[in-house]
Amino acid sequence: MRKATAADKQLVSEILVSAFSPLEESSAINLVVKQDKKRIKRMLILMEYLFETAMLFGEIYISDNNKACLLLKYPLNEKVTLKTIGLDIKLAFKCIGLERVFGVLKRQRITKKHAPKEHYIRPMILGSKNDSIGKGTAARLMMEVRLKFKDNKLPVITDAASEDNAKMYQKFGFRITKTDESLGFPIYFLRLN
Fold first, then answer.
1. Cys bridge to 57: 63, 77, 85, 150, which one at CB 3.0-4.6 A?
2. 134-192 pLDDT, tens digit each
3. How many CB atoms sit inside 10 A of residue 76's CB?
4. Rounded to an integer, what distance in angstroms lies between the CA atom of residue 187 and that of residue 180?
5. What is the 3-state secondary structure (H, E, C) of the chain?
6. Cα 179 from chain centre
7. Who wins on pLDDT, 8 or 111?
8. Under a CB-based contact definition with an 8 Å cutoff, are residues 187 and 179 in contact?
9. Exposed, middle or buried, 51 (CB in 10 Å: 0-12/13-18/19+)?
10. Cα–chain center distance at 9
């Protein structure tokens, strides 16, 4: 495993698009990405946005074979800047579409409502290239990152929009603390520590 640098933006974005583009059911990704003929291009914009925000306020880890990545954010470090405003505007116009912004804002309110008031670490997204799914690449990366943070005292808080993803996080010691279905699909809130 290695820590990503700015030069890894394309690689990380491609890994995540490969991982999530096959999903057609209701999910957090499909809530954000406007569903039209430009879906893949819009998904790439989302993944670049996630990369940029993780680089600003967290860390990104990439598997040794460059087929999986994990983006972490430290909400304590987050702040509004001209750069973040620009990223948000680009995401709204080029990925979400104005008609979907209210759904995305509702999703953010739900996530914030279930977030702890204490400092914590937030895995934003974990994915592996489509040709590596089921081969343990993402799981090995998660185990390596977990080992790196073994002395961490902060809680690790994440959410998953599918039962399979929630079960995967549970294999790594996360426990489901809440489930919310107000968006038409379940969001599982999970905690470690």
1. 77
2. 788 888 998 899 888 888 888 999 998 888 888 989 998 999 999 998 888 888 999 98
3. 12
4. 5
5. CEECCHHHHHHHHHHHHHHHCCCCCCCHHHHHCCCCCCHHHHHHHHHHHHHHHHHHHEEEEECCCCCEEEEEECHHHCCCCHHHHHHHHHHHHHHHCHHHHHHHHHHHHHHHHHCCCCCCEEEEEEEECHHHCCCCHHHHHHHHHHHHCCCCCCCEEEEECCHHHHHHHHHCCCEEEEEECCCCCCEEEEEEC
6. 17
7. 8
8. yes
9. buried
10. 15
Domains of the chain: 2-192 (3.40.630.30)
Quote the pLDDT of residue 6: 97
The mean predicted confidence, pLDDT, of the chain is 89
Nearest-CA neighbor of 16 among 192, 26, 157, 28?
Answer: 28
Q: For residue 86, which phi and psi values (nearest 5 degrees)?
A: -60, -40
pLDDT of residue 27: 66
